Sequence to fold (58 residues):
Amino acid sequence: MAINKNLLEILACPKCKGDIRLTKKEDGLICYNCRLFYPIRDGIPVMLIDEAISMDKT
Fold:
């Protein structure tokens, strides 16, 4: 299930309040400021800082 493009326009990183981008695979959202990956599960973005995956660890 694809994420709604209108929703992407209003979402912001919960940590820094910066812009987020959809990954090419559309499996998550990335904040390049914080270098955090927020997964999308069942079409719903999990925008919890504790659930985010650091891109520095990958």
